[in-house]
Amino acid sequence: MYTVIASRGGTARPRTARDTTRTATGFGLITMTLFAVCFVLLVDGQSPIASLNSGLPHLELGTLIASGHIPAAKAAVEREREQLTQERDAFHRFVADVESIPVSAGGRQSHTPVGITRANVTEDELHSVRAAYRRRVMDLNHFDQIYGEQLYENIATELSEDVAAAVVHGDQFSPPVKQVVLQQATRAGIRRERLVEAVTTERESLEYAQDQLQEITGALEDEPTVADFTLTELFEYERRVDQWKGKCARLLRTRQRDIHSEDRFPSKFDISFVQRYLYNDLETDFPVLTTGLQLYSRLEVRQRAVHDEITYR
Q1: 3-state SS string over the chain?
Q2: Closest to 95 in 3D by CA, of 132, 131, 135
Q3: What are phi and psi of 5, to 5 degrees?
Q4: 4 forms bridges with which residues in the sheet?
Q5: In Å, how far from its chain's centre is CA 266?
Q6: How buried is 198 (Cβ within 10 angstroms: 0-12 exposed, 13-18 middle, 19+ buried)?
Q7: Who contacts 203 (Cβ-Cβ below 8 Å, separation ≥6)?
Q8: What total number of domains does the chain contain?
Q9: Which residues lie across from 14 on neighbouring strands?
């Protein structure tokens, strides 16, 4: 399978199973290290979340959710979804174009006009295939920025090396060549459709996470300062903060499980680890986890303030 991942450096490359495994393994090691650090801090009586986020700049709660990592991730996902949809449609149109191009010698559709050599007709047919590919696929507005490839290179990546050789350097648009071009172009469109489904799933996950986090920040912002509470109200407020922390922690666990889940997407393809694919240009490859940890840290600060207020009353 030649599923293409657009590297942010401007070239295209096939995403291999080895790449996916290496990326997932790397994140697994980071996660194990994170848990190890948290365990040591807990043994020492320190707050792991506060320690991990001690270097984070102060953020207003509204800014944290409304204009932080998740909105940037949603914009990246929407842009990727739009480009993938255009590419899917482009391959579908290319298939329709190729179906209308007659085959060369040996095909029932081949008719050589009087006075025109067979070589010229063959060249016209192959030229039509190449022109259709350029017009439908390579003329997309984002093609040069994302892929930046020449005709042979892109056909080889998308449709196979054999198809590229036959279309670009071949001397006959035979029925077998036409058949394999149609088959491979159809598969390229299907791969884009599967990626669109995966990216749509990721967009829905981002929207759900943002809604959940906004509920917590909205509740926090609506609360008065702890100095205004009675002692009874402080105990009740501490209970609410603990509930918000639990909700935030559950969201983080769910998101982490989704990242590693093989059943997350409705269609199977060779990119199960989409974080780096989608978010390579952003400040973090894990926008929900980063935002959730920042919010959890703020909740811990609020909870400590409540405990201090109760202690010194």
Answers
A1: CCCEEECCCCCEEECCHHHHHHHHHHHHHHHHHHHHHHHHHHHCCCCHHHHHCCCCCCCCHHHHHHCCHHHHHHHHHHHHHHHHHHHHHHHHHHHHHHHCCCCCCCCCCCCCCCCCCHHHHHHHHHHHHHHHHHHHHHCCCCHHHHCCCCHHHHHHHHHCHHHHHHHHCCCCCCHHHHHHHHHHHHHHHHHHHHHHHHHHHHHHHHHHHHHHHHHHHHHHHHCCCHHHCCHHHHHHHHHHHHHHHHHHHHHHHHHHHHHHCCCCCCCCCCCCCCHHHHHCCCCCCCHHHHHHHHHHHHHHHHHHHHHHHHHCC
A2: 132
A3: -105, 125
A4: 14
A5: 15
A6: buried
A7: 74, 77, 78, 81
A8: 1
A9: 4
In order along its 313 residues, the chain shows pLDDT tens digits of: 334 444 323 333 333 233 333 344 444 544 443 444 344 333 444 443 343 333 333 446 666 776 789 999 999 999 999 999 999 999 999 999 999 999 986 544 444 333 334 444 456 899 999 999 999 999 999 999 999 999 999 999 999 999 999 999 999 999 999 999 999 999 999 999 999 998 999 999 999 999 999 999 888 777 777 778 889 999 999 999 999 999 999 999 999 888 877 555 544 444 446 788 899 899 999 999 999 999 999 999 989 989 998 988 7
Domain span at residue 98 reads: 4-311
CA triple 19-92-80, angle to 5 deg: 45
Look at the pTM and tell me if it is higher than 0.90: no
Torsion of CA 276, 278, 284, 286, to 10 degrees: -80
* Listed residue (61, 65, 137) closest to 95, CA to CA: 137
Q: How far apart are CA 168 and CA 241, in angstroms?
A: 65
